[in-house]
Amino acid sequence: TIPGLVNVDFADVKAVMKDSGTAMLGVGVSSSKNRAEEAAEQATLAPLIGSSIQSATGVVYNITGGKDITLQEVNRVSQ
To answer: CB of 60 within 8 A of CB of 12?
Structure first.
């Protein structure tokens, strides 16, 4: 277990995914000036699946950053 502002565990994932159909996994990485937004956009595009996150009925997401990540960045991509 790694401490964080809000910890997500298997029970959280199970609650969102139970009886929800197809699952999608997205990953985004960026170190540019707009890193938070770029990483979030990458994670939600899922070009290999050919599906859109717009039809999702639930979402579990994790944001991992260095010591310089700000709460403003986390808040912007959580909206």
So the answer is: yes
